């Protein structure tokens, strides 16, 4: 395929319904990609049986186009792009579930965002006895207790000045 033909096709391709696009975008910033993302995650969940060890983290998909939830993260190699929360198998790096970060909903600060993300990503694994590992953004005692209640265990990094730690 010639480059010009590919660019023209790429410009015209859509993954959403044109008739309902405006209304859905008003309700959901991720509407143009929501359907294809849900199909992808459904296939990831149904076609793979993950190992006992899973990990949750953020991933920045490099992107410089127009997007209402584009992020700038200076510590990442790409710096600009779409932030995605992702649950992966620790042994194979296979994507099991993912969720786009579209910013604050209605400007409301979500204090327990890390906990909410981990619980939503692992919701389909309740009672499986799997072990979840994540970094200090997600780590708190509420999450560890919630996962234990769902018959899963948790390991996470913490900072020295963490509230739950004693002085020793």
List keywords for this structure.
globular; 5 helices; 6 strands; alpha/beta; single chain; 168 residues
How are the elements arranged and paired?
Blueprint (H helix, E strand, L loop, with lengths): L2 H10 L8 H7 L3 H16 L6 E10 L8 E2 L7 E10 L5 E6 L12 H9 L9 E4 L6 H9 L3 E4 L12
Describe the structure.
- The chain is α/β, with parallel strands linked by helices and 168 residues long.
- It contains 5 helices and 6 strands.
- It has helices at 3-12, 21-27, 31-46, 113-121, 141-149, and strands at residues 53-62, 71-72, 80-89, 95-100, 131-134, 153-156.
- Strands 1, 2, 3, 4, 5 and 6 form a 6-stranded mixed β-sheet that branches.
- α4 (113-121) runs parallel beside α5 (141-149).
- The longest helix has 16 residues, at 31-46.
- It is globular, with a radius of gyration of 19 Å.
- The model has no long low-confidence stretch (mean pLDDT 84).
Brief summary of the model shown:
The chain has helices at 3-12, 21-27, 31-46, 113-121, 141-149; strands spanning 53-62, 71-72, 80-89, 95-100, 131-134, 153-156.
Describe the global form: globular
Task: Report the strand count.
Answer: 6
Mean pLDDT reading: 84
Order of helices and strands: HHHEEEEHEHE
Which runs of at least 5 residues are low in confidence (pLDDT < 50)? none
Q: What is the percentage of strand-forming residues? A: 15-25%
Q: Give the N-to-C terminal Cα separation.
A: 65 Å
Count of helix runs: 5
Largest sheet: 6 strands, mixed
* Helix content range: 25-40%
User: What is the C-alpha radius of gyration, as a whole number of Å?
Assistant: 19 Å
The helix-and-strand class reads alpha/beta
């Amino acid at each position: 395929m010639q480059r010009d033909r590919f660019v023209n096709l790429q410009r015209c391709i859509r993954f959403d319904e044109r008739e309902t696009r405006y209304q859905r975008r008003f309700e959901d910033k991720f509407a143009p990609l929501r359907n294809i993302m849900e199909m992808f995650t459904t296939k990831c969940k149904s076609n793979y049986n993950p190992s006992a060890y899973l990990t949750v983290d953020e991933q920045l998909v490099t992107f410089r186009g127009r997007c209402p939830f584009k992020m700038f993260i200076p510590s990442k190699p790409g710096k600009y792009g779409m932030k995605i929360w992702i649950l992966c198998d620790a042994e194979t790096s296979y994507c099991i579930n993912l969720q786009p970060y579209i910013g604050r909903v209605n400007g409301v600060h979500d204090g327990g965002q890390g906990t909410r993300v981990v619980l939503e990503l692992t919701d389909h694994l309740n009672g499986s006895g799997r072990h979840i590992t994540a970094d200090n953004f997600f780590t708190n005692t509420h999450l560890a207790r919630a996962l234990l209640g769902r018959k899963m265990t948790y390991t996470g990094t913490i900072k020295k000045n963490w509230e739950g730690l004693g002085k020793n």
